[in-house]
Amino acid sequence: MKTPPIFKAVNGLGLILLFIIFAMPFIWMASTAFKTLGETLTFPPVWIPETFQWGNFAQAWSSGPFLKYFFNSVIVTLFILILQFATIIPAAYAFARYNFPMKNFFFALTMICLMIPSQLIFLPVYLNLSSWGILDTIWGLILPFATSAFGIFLLRQSFMQVPEELLEAARLDDATEWQIIRKIMLPLAKPVLVTLALFSFIAHWNDYFWPLVMTTNDTARTLPLGIAMLRQVEGGASWNIVMAGNLLLVLPILIVFFFAQRHIIRAFVYTGVK
Amino acid sequence: MAEIRLENISKAFNEDRVVKNISLTIKEGSFTVLVGPSGCGKSTILRMLAGFEKQTEGDIWIGDKLVNDLSPSKRDIAMVFQNYALYPTMTVKGNIEFGLTNRKVPKKERQQLIEEIAGIVGLTEHLNKKPDKLSGGQRQRVALARAMVKKPKVFILDEPLSNLDAKLRTQMRAELIQLHEKLGTTFVYVTHDQVEAMSMGDEIIILNQGVVQQKAAPIEVYENPGNIFAAEFIGQPPMNVFERKAFAETLEGVPEEAHYIGFRPEHAGISSAAVSVPHTIELESEILALETLGAESIYKVKNRIGVMNIRSFSAPLPKHAICFVSIPHEKLYPFGADKAAGPELNLSVKKEAALNGID
Q: A260: domain CATH number?
């Protein structure tokens, strides 16, 4: 059956509309980052600035200890990723492949963690970290995210798809459980791992709420906080500078996404092992 | 090479006893086939042998080692799985090498072993391919190579041919027999296919509901089935078995202990006219169905004894015709009340009942 051209046209229009809704804020951000302060305030808005103000980036960067923020962001995000993988992988393997007492209870507990919003528990966590004396340190930003319920869940699903015979064959081949994880399970779960890493990276690289709660000075502040503080520079908000800072903030994410795209698509159309 | 001994092995899953007190010895260097319908416990026995399941009771010996508490890798066995279970992210070489690397075999020796095995199974040119680029038969060979390279004492094969098409299966059957001869290792082979069991095994063990029905050479099972189950399981179509009273009015001298009497479909004759051969029961029959297979024909006929299958190698008779089935006395096979092979028969035909029987 052929689709009537009118439906094709409506379909196309709908897609274009959706694209505009999604892309508009980003284009607006990118365009503003290159404007003069005057251009940001004109109405109707100017989309392409008269001259590209590359200086905005330098100004944004130098209007605070941004190297420190950047360094903090890198360390925090990196450590969160490392700790998450170190905890998620064995947990997911155990949930997927072992039988142990109260397994279902513990898995339910993990799922509950997934359902509780962090805004609900930040106060007890804050008090706890405060009693450990690690407020205003990067550990206060890292430790609460040392594992991920979502990661355990997603990886468990992926591990469960691996046929049992494969593990039995590996055990006959003298493989230890760690070797089975490393040589068989993880290579098969690669798309899921890449997706998890990317989600986690984006979430923690962009995280605003938690660093805002946990830090009171520049020693542990991360990039999103620094960018947000650009608004308060020199009394009024220089939107062009703020947007230049934002563009710097999202640049690493865009680069990573560009390289990991193939794996992400595969993770979502994952059909299992033949 | 090693002999395998199972002593009073039982296995229960919760309340369900799937293997019931089995004791058997698998001879060193033999090609032993465990065969039976699904759910008969054959795969469970295999998995207990490999160490993936722990028996509820009993001892398992491989060679002179009691392996009850040994992990699978310490049992000196190799296994070929039904779905091959090749490591999908590794190349053919990686698949064969994995076990060797884990056993810390030096690299030079590994290389040599892989080349040798790849040559034997004909995979040399595929060593750098991933399993998903191989055909079913090639995957099967990789699975065999992976098992062989460890030089195990016992090979365990779990329905290894069931995923192949009919032509390839026949070919692999012959290759496995040759491989067994070449290696001389003990092979334990599980299948539900009686043709595979008959054609490949030195010895076949027929299982049903967790109990050994018969353990003997294939030809012995065929000629002297231990009980009705074995008689009906081996042979295509299965042996025709009837209760004693069906024969009692035709035959004289059927001993009291023979509660059932059977005969193989290929041992009866079928013809369009009565032939009157001595020491033979002849029955006027109606043909209900006919399968023509080229070299042979399989009839389903009905007569005064009951409905039976007859396998004949002569030209097919017309369907729905009246025909004459003749069963030589010496091919009748008695079973006792417990359905086990029964007493010897010494028969004569009742004159009034036999259509054309001559004593």
A: 1.10.3720.10
Q: How many structural domains are present in chain A?
A: 2
Q: Do A171 and B72 touch (CB under 8 A)?
A: yes
Please indicate whether, in this complex, the C-beta atoms of A184 and B50 are within 8 angstroms of each other. Answer: no
Do A170 and A89 reside in the same domain of the chain?
A: yes
Pick from A166, A175, A187: which is nearest to B85 by CB? A166
CB contact under 8 A, B88 and A273: yes
User: Do A83 and A205 belong to one domain?
Assistant: yes
Contact: A173, B99; criterion CB under 8 Å: yes
Edge-to-edge, what's the strand order for the sheet holding B269-271?
B269-271, B322-328, B280-292, B297-302, B307-312
Domains of chain B are 4-231 (3.40.50.300), 237-349 (2.40.50.140)
Residues 6 or more apart whose Cβ sits within 8 Å of residue A132: none
Q: What is the number of other CB atoms lying within 10 angstroms of the CB of residue B267?
A: 17
DSSP state of B278: B
Q: What pLDDT was estimated at residue A216?
A: 87
Q: Mark out the alpha helices in chain B (DSSP H runs).
A: 42-50, 92-102, 107-121, 136-148, 166-183, 194-200, 218-223, 228-233, 244-248
Residues on chain A touching B87 (C-beta within 8 angstroms): 166, 169-170, 183-184
B167 φ, ψ (degrees, to nearest 5): -70, -45
- Chain B environment of A172 (Cβ under 8 Å): 50, 72-73, 77-79, 99
| Inter-residue contact B153 to B63 (CB < 8 Å) | yes
Residues of B in contact with A188 (CB under 8 A): 88-89
pLDDT in tens, chain B (359 residues): 689 999 999 999 888 889 999 999 999 999 999 999 988 889 899 999 999 999 999 999 998 899 999 999 889 899 999 888 999 999 999 999 999 999 999 999 999 999 999 988 888 999 999 999 998 889 989 999 999 898 899 999 999 888 888 888 888 899 899 989 988 899 999 999 888 999 999 999 999 999 999 999 999 999 899 899 999 998 888 999 998 888 877 777 777 788 888 999 999 999 888 887 888 888 889 998 889 888 899 999 999 889 999 999 888 888 777 899 999 888 888 888 888 887 676 665 554 444 444 33
Contacts of A163 in chain B (CB under 8 A): 83, 85
Q: Does ipTM exceed 0.90?
A: no
Please tell me whether residue B324 adopts helix, strand or coil conformation: strand
Asked if B87 has any chain A CB less than 8 Å from its own CB, the reply is yes
Are A174 and B103 in contact (CB < 8 Å)?
Answer: yes
Query: d(Cα A150, Cα A85) in Å, to the nearest integer?
Result: 12
- Give the residue carrying structure tokens 């009905």: B302
**pTM value?**
0.79
* pLDDT single digits (tens) A214-271: 888 888 899 999 888 887 766 667 888 889 889 988 988 888 888 888 777 776 665 4
Establish if B70 touches chain A: CB-CB under 8 angstroms.
no
With beta carbons under 8 A apart, name residues in chain B contacting A182.
none
**Which segments of chain B are extended strands (E)?**
4-13, 16-26, 31-35, 57-62, 65-66, 77-80, 154-158, 186-191, 203-208, 211-216, 240-243, 251-252, 260-263, 269-271, 280-292, 297-302, 307-312, 322-328, 333-335, 348-349
Task: Domain of residue A228: give its range.
Answer: 63-268
Residues forming beta bridges with residue B13, ordered by sequence position: B16
Is the minimum CB–CB distance between B162 and chain A shorter than 8 Å?
A: no
